[in-house]
Structure formats: structure tokens, C-alpha cells
Amino acid sequence: MKQSLRSQLNQLIKLRGEVPYNEVKEKCESGYFKKYYRITTAERRLHASESPEIEAIYKDGYIISYRHKNPMKFQKVAVKDSYGNVEKYITMPCA
């Protein structure tokens, strides 16, 4: 099922918490979202009227990054074997 650019951008920013403007621009122009998009299209999709949970961070009148108002929180969990020894640590979303 196809996902819109807006939902893909929102999901990326929610998972990471904050994403720099240059990274959003590079991902849009490189085909990361399975299609080439201009940065102006991404800016429009991340505007407050379309994505109210995303806020743009400005410095000297320019956007430097996008931040999610309620980012996903993750916790580190130990995976143990049958003897109680820690095999590895994984990161899982908090409930």
C-alpha cells in the first residue's frame, strides 16, 4: 500500500524526534521516499496546517530542523537465555 509523502515524513520525524532540514532535503531529492520530490513539496507537507504535530525550528529566519511535539520513546531491553545470562540488548518502543 502506498504511503503519502506527508505520512512518511511524519513517521520519520516521530521515530527520530528531530530531523535536520538538510537531511529532509537530501532524502526528498534522492528518491528515498520511492519518488523524487522537491524540497518545497516537503515543506508544504510539514507545514502546521497539514502536520499539526510537527514544528519547524528556525534560526536567523531559516528552518534548521523539524521536531515532533510527542516523539516516540524507546527503552533498552535485555534478551536473556534460559540460564539468565544476557545475550543481547534490543531497543523497543515504550507503551
Q: What would the principal axes of the Cα set say about the shape?
A: elongated
Could you tell me the mean pLDDT?
Answer: 92
CATH class of one domain: Mainly Alpha
Largest sheet: 3 strands, antiparallel
Which percent bin holds the helix content?
25-40%
Instruction: Please trace the helix and strand order, writing H or E for each element.
Output: HEHHEEEE
Low-pLDDT stretches are none
Strands, total number: 5
Structural class: alpha+beta
Counted by DSSP, the helix tally is 3
End-to-end Cα distance: 26 Å
Q: Strand percentage, roughly?
A: 25-35%
Q: Using only CA atoms, what is the Rg? A: 17 Å
Annotated CATH architecture of one domain? Orthogonal Bundle
Query: What is the CATH third-level topology name of one domain?
Result: Arc Repressor Mutant, subunit A
Strand line-up in the sheet with most strands: 1-3-2
What distinguishing features does this structure have?
alpha+beta; elongated; Arc Repressor Mutant, subunit A; 95 residues; two-stranded antiparallel sheet; 5 strands; three-stranded antiparallel sheet
